[in-house]
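Predict both folds.
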Amino acid sequence: MGKNQFAHLLKYYLSLNDKTQTDLVNALGYDKSTVSGWCSGSRVPKLDVIIDIANYLHVSPGDLILEDDNNHYYIDPETREVAQAIYENKDLSLLFNAAKDADPEDLKTVHTMLLALKRKEKGE
């Protein structure tokens, strides 16, 4: 298991559960810098800690260790790619909520609309 893979999966499941690094620190009592290291990919916790985190996030420990390439939230790969772009844009990620079977063109339209709204909000 690579450090970056664990970091990616941890951030994914934190987001999926609407949790932050601070929530994890407060709930499980780990040091803030330790949790930050896990999320940045500079550290990987020991197995017993992974089990605690998995229980907190309501997933199996394996979900935090191995990414299942055949089990994606978005069925269509193009939809998944657009959704990831929206997710990675901090200004848009909170505004976004789509169905598993969303059409890629619909998702691209939502993405374009959200970007336009954010530009308008900023007076651009």
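Second protein follows, with its predicted structure tokens after the sequence.
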Amino acid sequence: MAQSVNPNGALARKVRRLGHLDLPGAGQVTVAGHHAYVGHIPNKDNLGTSIIDIADPANPKLVATVTLDDPTSHSHKVRVAGGIMVVNHERNMTPIGRRAEQMPAARRELQAALGREPTRGELAVKLNVTEAVMIEVEEAEKKPYRNGGFRIYDVANPARPSLIHHQLTGGIGVHRFDMDERYAYISTEMDGFIGNILVTYDLKDPKRPQEVSRWWMPGQNLAAGETPSWSGKRHRLHHALRFGDEMWASCWHGGFRIVDVSDLAKPKTIGAYNYHPPFPEPTHTAMPVPVAISGRRIALSIDEEDQAQSANEEEARRGRLHAGMATYDVTDPADIKPLALFDVSELDTPFARTPGARFGAHQFHERMTGTLVFAVWFSGGLRVVDVADPSSPREVGFFIPEPVAGHKAPQSNDVVLDGRGLIYMVDRLNGFDVLEFNGG
């Protein structure tokens, strides 16, 4: 495919940049009316949420920020509906990040090989970290965390967000979630469970959210005597999206589930598909295509490139499949069939093998209107993919932003479209872009 180099240094095909802000690294962007709401990755300034006026897409303007009063927490996810803004409240990761999930399996492997409990140093070598880092992790785990949950704000005036309520949940708190004008569909840890589960709250009175129901995978409810068949928290809810009377739940290394919520108080799993193994990267998001294709109901999943490719890991990861996107026939939820894979090759971006930067899929716009998927790739920017033929997804445009603020590679992290069809993309390290797709 031919590509153009824009004067601003970005690589693009059929996508152009309308506006840009040098905004600190972000985890999620959502749009309501003429404002974009951005949840920030943990940072030294305790910045939680930025609110941006996007009425003029060529000149986005920061109009308000929300900071956290707890330096051990972050709120990198945000949703807005009906003049209400909800943000997550989650404990910051320990120094080894998501490698903490690998600790139970690593410890068992060493126990089997050594015939005894491994030392801290042996475990550090197994996890490819220093012993000093392991000490930090042990100390962090000793400190109880009690602030996990979500916060609700009044944003009737987006320039003056006002805190209404901080709802506590459990464990390390809330990750990604969905919401509408009545309910919040929260992915959170809860006492008695292992890993995140789905807890639905009624927001009719935002000062007093009421729990409606819980959904989890069999094996997560330890308090009820369930036993997981997986190691640690590898199978857990990343988040669930509501489409009519269904919730589409992405379950990390557990694939995805389709959950019937026609009775919201009694969610019931009606479909499941797990493709781990053989695919190594976890399921980030799953959703249905809104239109039938050749009489079939089609769905998508996108995985997250979960581990950064640091210089000392790059060789070890050669040959490992990168996170990508897949299509499915879900006409019969009880008999889900995989159809095709879509991937961005290492030849499709100059940043694919940048030391210390992730390269692979992460997320797509969660509300399709036709057959176009707008997805973001770490080190690969925005990819526009047509799934009109779900057996052969076809890329029809892309936009790879130039690295900014001294970083070596873009880390495009989230994307959303507004009612005008404009595209809003945030970077995990730095940057907020307003884009336009000219499919032509």
